[in-house]
Amino acid sequence: MNTPPSPLGAEQPAGSSIRIGALVPLTRPGWVEAGHHLLAGLELAVSHVNDTGGIAGRPLDLVVRDTAADPQKAAAAVDELARLGVAAVVGEYHSVVAQSAAARADALGLPFLCASAVLDALTDRPTPWVARLAPAQSRSWQVYADFLLGAGHSHIAVAADPSVYWASGARILRDHLAPHGGTVTEFDMRVLTPTSLCDTLVDHRATALLLLAGHPEPAVPIVKSVRRDKRLADIMIGAPAGQPEFAEWATLLGDDSTAVPFLRYLPERLSPLGTQVEATLRARLAEAPSFVAFEGYDTVTVLADVLRSHGTDRARIAGSWPHLSVEGTRGRIQFTRTPGISVWQWAWPPVQVVDRDPAQPDRFRILHTG
CB 141: neighbour CB atoms within 10 A? Predict the structure, then answer.
């Protein structure tokens, strides 16, 4: 491995706690609910490691920094965490923010295990320093495109916010649907209001409207407007990025929260470990844990295995990614080099398309798996 000079604090003295940096969106405009679930999973796994003797008798210490969905804030946090001597950085939910963190970690020679961000190009060059548990967007959104085709939807309208992440998603859908005669038409929500979007959709032949837009604004007002417009009674609303996963979606939308298919990264049945973790997370969160909470738990579980076998040296941690085989809550985790992806990738986590059941909004129906 071509290893850059280790920054100050790369080695942690024997007998001290082992510090791990954690990047999490905990304030707006970050997706706060996702951040809380991610942090709950990270913290529970740290607690489990420490309750079972830590790493060769040394406890893990999670050093949390709020990214607030700000790429510059995330990069600055990586710099700070490197100076504090963390062995590695974990976490982050927002893809564009994770991109910034990954680039900085790569430059510093600091291992970064990304929990939840899916954008394919986390770094602009192949790097040994970054690994990822979440599926690449090109993988999961192709599964969503297959679901659309199977459900008879080939002409898709997209309500889009400007973002590298949303633009990438639209491109993946378009490229996957085109060989099947499908089309994707984007509508810029900087220009349209939810009401004017409805007027536009009436004249459009799409049978599905996908929300490639922020939550709660403008996604929630769009759903309310479309569901109340009798002219659009037959259009399906979808949210591949997973907005309906969290309780806030159901709280804000009530009955309108149901029958909105979205992506989540869970198997049909959790592993025995996953079943135990699910019960504890449910008690901690006072609600059903999202897939993001399981991603957080699995991230620390993987890193703990690395620390036990390779110690806290940053280069040795990064060098371990291709040799790992760790049982997580959602299956056995191993990292490989995947064409078109510049980081070490778990290929692949389980992918589902689910929605909230109209008959029981707190229950999820599995519509498609990939």
Answer: 25
**pLDDT number for residue 8:** 41
* Contact criterion met (CB below 8 Å) for 203 and 232: no
pLDDT given for residue 4 in this prediction: 43
Give phi and psi for 18, each to the nearest 5.
-100, 115
Token pair for 118: 């899916």
Instruction: Show the tokens assigned to 350.
Output: 């389980």
Residue 1 pLDDT more than 90? no
How far lies 339's CA from each of 86, 137, 223, 336, in Å?
Answer: 30, 13, 37, 10
Burial 205-233 (b: 16+ CB within 10 A, else e): ebbbbbbbbbbbebbbbbbebbbebeebe
Residue 5 reports pLDDT greater than 50: no
Q: What is the pLDDT of residue 205?
A: 87
Q: 124 to each of 72, 95, 191, how far by Cα in Å?
A: 17, 14, 31
Phi and psi, residue 283, nearest 5°: -70, -40
pTM over cut 0.90: yes
The stretches of 178-246 forming alpha helices (DSSP H) are 194-202, 219-228
Question: Residue 360: helix, strand or coil by DSSP?
Answer: strand
Span 30-51, average pLDDT: 98
CA distance 227 to 238: 12
Taking alpha carbons only, the member of 173, 223, 155 closest to residue 195 is 223
Confidence of residue 19 (pLDDT cuts 50, 70, 90): very high
> Exposure string (b/e) for 335-361, b if CB count within 10 Å is 16 or more?
beebeebbbbbbebbbbbbbbbeeeeb
Cβ–Cβ under 8 Å, residues 185 and 191:
no
H helical segments located in the chain? 32-51, 71-84, 95-108, 137-150, 164-177, 194-202, 219-228, 247-253, 272-285, 291-310, 314-319
Q: Are 294 and 41 in contact (CB under 8 A)?
A: yes
Confidence category of residue 12, pLDDT binned at 50, 70, 90: low
Beta bridge mates, 346: 335
Cα–Cα distance measured from residue 363 to residue 2, given in angstroms and rounded to the nearest whole number:
49
